[in-house]
Amino acid sequence: MTRVALAGYGSAGRTIHAPRLLEAGLDIVAVSTRDAERAAAVRAGLPGAAVVPTLDDLLALEDVDLVVLATPSGAHAEHVRAVVDAGRPCVVDKPLAVDAERGAAVVRHAERAGVPLTVFQNRRYDPEHTTVRALLADGRVGEPFRYEMRWERWRPVPKDRWRENAPWEDGGGILLDLHTHLVDAAVQLFGPVTHVAATVAARSTPAEDDAFLLVTHTSGVVSHLSATSLAAAPGPRVRLLGRAAAYVQADFEGEAHVWSGQRDPDADHCGWLYGGDEPMAVPRVRSSQADLYRAVAAALASPDPQAAMPIDPWDAVHTLAVVDAARVAAAEQRVVEVVTPRR
C-alpha cells in the first residue's frame, strides 16, 4: 500500500485530498499542520496518522512513498522544491505555481533530480468531464467549433480566506483557483491554446473574483471560459456547439442553477444532446477523482514512474501560460499570444 504524507489539512487537505486518497486505497501515514483544531481533526478522522507541525518535519519522516501538497497556492513552487530535494515523489494541488516561468522552473528541477512529480488536476476525473470527452470521441456533435464552460457562483457576501484576499502573486484570485480547472479541461478536449482575450475584475474581494477568457485552440475550436462569484443566475455548466448537434450540461455537484429544462433526468444521465426533433439525455460516463490517486499509485509501482504519472506537469505549465496571457490581455484590452516556457 502506498504510504502518503499529506502537507496541509485546511479545506483542500481535509475535504478533497484525504477522502480521495482513502477511497483510492492509499494509506495516509502523516499530516502536517500548525493549527491545533486541524491537528485534532486529523487525530479524530485519521487516528493512525502522525501529526507534525511543518513540511520539514513531514519530509524528515521515514517510510513515506509519496508527499501530497495541499498547502496555499502561493507556496506551491517552494514546497515542491523542498519535496524534490528530499527525494520524495510529489503530488501538488493545482496551481503548480503562480505563473508559468516559476512552474517551468519547478518541473525542470524535478526532472534534473529524477523525482516523480504530478499535479492534482482532479476535475479531469469528474463524470461531467469524462462524459463530454466520450461525446466528442463518438462524434455525436459533429465537428466542434465552440466550447463554453462555466464555474459561476452566487456569493454576494464573500468568504474571508486567503483565496479571496491575497494578490495573485501570493496565490489568490479566481484565475489561479478556478480557471486553472477550466483551462485544463478545455485543453484536454481541444488541444493547446494559441491566443487569449480576457476580462478580469475584483468586484467584491481584494483578489479578482470575476473573469472571462476567450481562448483559441490549435484545433481551431474557440472556448469561452467563465468563472465568477457574483452570478445570481449561473449559466449552464457546459455548452458545446458542433456542426451536427449541440450539447448542454446544467447540473453540477448540486449547485443551484436556473436551467430547469436542462436538469439531468436521473443519476445515469449527464446533460442533453440537441439537434433532432427532441433533446436526448446523454448517458453518464462513470469516473471518480480517486482514480487520479489510483493512477499515481500505479505509476509509482511502474518501471518509469514519471512517464506513467496521470498528469504531465508540463500540462500545468501551459495552463499557467494561458492564465498569464489572460492577465495581460485584460490589462491591455487586446488579444495575446500564449507563450509556454520550453521544456
Second rung of CATH, namely the architecture of the largest domain: 2-Layer Sandwich
Task: Compute the CA-based radius of gyration.
Answer: 20 Å
Low-pLDDT stretches are: none
Q: Any idea what the shape is?
A: globular
Relative strand content? 15-25%
SSE string, helices as H and strands as E = EHEHEHEHEHEHEHHEEEEEEEHHHE
Domain GFO/IDH/MocA-like oxidoreductase: 130-246
Protein name: Putative dehydrogenase
Family: Belongs to the Gfo/Idh/MocA family.
GO molecular function, one term: nucleotide binding
Describe how the helices and strands are arranged:
Layout lengths: L2 E5 L3 H13 L3 E6 L3 H10 L4 E3 L2 H5 L6 E4 L6 H10 L4 E4 L6 H14 L3 E4 L6 H11 L6 E9 L9 H4 L8 H17 L2 E9 L8 E8 L4 E7 L9 E5 L3 E4 L19 E6 L5 E4 L6 H11 L4 H4 L4 H20 L3 E2 L6
Parallel strand pairs: 1-2, 1-4, 2-3, 4-5, 5-6, 7-10
Antiparallel strand pairs: 7-11, 8-9, 8-15, 9-10, 11-12, 12-13, 13-14
Pfam families: GFO_IDH_MocA, GFO_IDH_MocA_C3
GO molecular function: nucleotide binding; oxidoreductase activity
Keywords: NAD, Oxidoreductase
